[in-house]
TrEMBL record:
It is found in: Cytoplasm. Keywords: Cytoplasm, Glycolysis, Isomerase, Manganese, Metal-binding. It is an enzyme of class 5 (isomerase). NCBIfam families: pgm_bpd_ind. GO terms for biological process: glucose catabolic process; glycolytic process; response to blue light; response to carbon dioxide; stomatal movement. Substrate binds at residues 140, 170-171, 206, 213, 286-289, 361. It catalyses: (2R)-2-phosphoglycerate = (2R)-3-phosphoglycerate. Belongs to the BPG-independent phosphoglycerate mutase family. Mn(2+) 1 binds at residues 430, 434, 501. Its EC number is 5.4.2.12. Monomer. This is phosphoglycerate mutase (2,3-diphosphoglycerate-independent). The keyword Transferase does not apply.
Amino acid sequence: MGSSGFSWTLPVHPKLPKGKTVAVVVLDGWGEANADQYNCIHVAETPTMDSLKKGAPEKWKLVKAHGTAVGLPSDDDMGNSEVGHNALGAGRIFAQGAKLVDTALASGKIFEGEGFKYIKECFDQGTLHLIGLLSDGGVHSRLDQLQLLLNGASANGAKRIRVHILTDGRDVLDGTSVGFVETLENDLSQLRAKGIDACIASGGGRMYVTMDRYENDWDVVKRGWDAQVLGEAPHKFHNAVEAVKTLRAETKANDQYLPPFVIVDDSGKAVGPIVDGDAVVTFNFRADRMVMIAKALEYVDFDKLDRVRVPKIRYAGMLQYDGELKLPSHYLVSPPEIERTSGEYLVKNGIRTFACSETVKFGHVTFFWNGNRSGYFDETKEEYVEIPSDSGITFNVKPKMKALEIAEKARDAILSGKFDQVRVNLPNGDMVGHTGDIEATVVACKAADEAVKMILDAIEQVGGIYVVTADHGNAEDMVKRNKSGQPLLDKKGEIQILTSHTLQPVPVAIGGPGLHSGVRFRNDVQTPGLANVAATVMNLHGFEAPADYEPTLIEVVDK
């Protein structure tokens, strides 16, 4: 115990035994919604999850996984995998990316911080470049934050500004990019009226240009680098509205996959390549799809793509995107400090932990679960296994993904007797759901269900306990709806596919032969959410949670 009176030692639970193997299964993108043909979880054969749901009602509960329950500004904000796993692991609710940025912008503190001072050094002689997702989706970025950043930067001395846009169509409806570009162009023309040289310099669709993640495909980042830094792209236009409209019509690409373009002047010269002495800000607040471009902008020694020319710049992220890599080293808004996560407590109390997923969600079940922290707390008690994800294809091509392999690793870890907690993420519902391919998402949900069965069978064999939950919704609703819940149709009368996450609640199911017979879900927790899961899991390991954790979902009644 330190001088502050703080101790890592968790109190023993008065009624629940220690020593049971606990499997924690996170189904990614697996929410609860009305049963119809657009609910892929309902359409898919999912006998394991069905049996949990139809089992004892006191062992199945729905919890909130979006908005204020996971630290986002409002209940219009859909959850995402990062904030979801933060809440699941931390056991408390922390102000998250968007909220931190909103606060810093509203107070003006962002323009007084170290990160802004660092890039401001370039304003006299150089150009300020802003790179990010142009959308009001609120998952990676928000248009209104960009607008405040533009106004604040120009008020604080930026004389020449270039915006490099990435079109969305994934967290918002496809086709909305044109309107966002028109709004931005209007803002920039107002800045020009004040004598600021401000315009859009380049663009492209988020899934084809810049915003790759987990080093899946560096070509995506290279296409962005060539347009943003070198001022080179296969398509050249005099303005961005024309660019987006023309490319959508001619290439038939949707917003997510628009090819890269640069804006050129009358002589055909790019209006905004990044050169020595410039400042660059990536304005997305969500980390996962900014890490790769951050590396390309920040690292001196770097061989993942041919940068051709590496300008001497001052670069800052909206936030720091990777705490372990300290990347980027300069950022405009400081991250939430998440200390004392459940993972660290349990390891320090002797709980041997195994965590596994495939590449696309491995970071979620480790880094995000552990409070935005890479690595082990105690490598003698932990093992983290990453199974390589398929690369070079979209996930609807192989919708089973690595669910079976993840389940096999989990099963082996459970049966080995070497671990007290076995934690996995099954990515199928989310990653395939994002493709908008309904048939493939049905296959994905079935594969995830089969993986859950394999893990639960292993728990059965060792007399253990399971907790099956999710981080946010996706696969349970694949269609855009009007206010009364009816599917929206496009001009051709086709349904409008929903590729984004949802606002739906997610399940928490508990069970297994090791579960004390008196355990049941409480009914007195006000608005239960993902953050309540950590204390619940601690209880199942035989411990009481720290006093400041969100309350446990379970109680023990004497039979």
